[in-house]
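quick one before i forget lol
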Amino acid sequence: MQKNLKEGKYYILDGVLLYLEVGVISEAVRELGDRVRKDVRTRTIFDNGTYSNMLYRSLAK
């Protein structure tokens, strides 16, 4: 699903509408063997006006 997330699009998460902005508020880099995974913070805005700065990969899961 991670490939399917696009900035500026709307999604439904557990029945709640959200708008996705991807920005580099903070970036975590993890090395797993020979792989390096970057995980940027998103600005996720929900339909009730609240927002979250969840990690991109957490949202994809």
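fyi The radius of gyration is 12 Å.
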